[in-house]
Amino acid sequence: MNLELSEEQEAVRRLARAFTDREIAPYAAEWDRAESVDRAIVKSLGDLGFLGLTVPEEYGGSGGDHLSYALVTEELGRGDSAVRGIVSVSLGLVAKTVAAWGTEEQKREWLPRLCSGEALGCFGLTEPGTGSDAASLTTRAVREGDAYVISGSKMFITNGTWADVVLLFARTGGAPGHRGISAFLVPADAPGLTRREVHGKLGLRGQATAELALDGVRVPASAMLGPEGKGFSVAMSALAKGRMSVAAGCVGIAQAALDAAVSYAARREQFGKPIAHHQLVQELIADISVDVDAARLLTWRVADLIDRGQPFATEASTAKLFASEAAVRAAGNALQVHGGYGYIDEYPAGKLLRDARVMTLYEGTSQIQKLLIGRARTGVSAF
Ligand code: FAD
Question: Where is the signal peptide (predicted)?
Answer without folding.
Answer: none
